[in-house]
Amino acid sequence: MMKFTTLAAAAAVAATPFMASATTTLQIDTNQDGVLTLDEVQAVYPEMGADQFISMDLDANGALDESEVAAATEAGLLPAPSEG
Ligand SMILES: [Ca+2]
Ligand SMILES: [Ca+2]
User: Is residue 46 exposed (0-12), middle (13-18) or buried (19+ Cβ within 10 Å)?
Assistant: First the structure.
């Protein structure tokens, strides 16, 4: 019965979906307001141009929210940050 308990605990840990897709937004959103401004994006991607930012800002409010970041990442406009 000890084995069953251990297995259940391991499964619970494995099921915790942290770090799944939040990496990009959290790393770039330096002021933690939930959206990414051009300044914040350029701090991580110095080569990011305003034109490219605008093309990712689907509702043109000057900031990228989570869904816009997800869409940009999927479209290959916003590369995943590389360590080092
Ligand atoms: Ca922000
Ligand atoms: Ca927006």
Answer: exposed
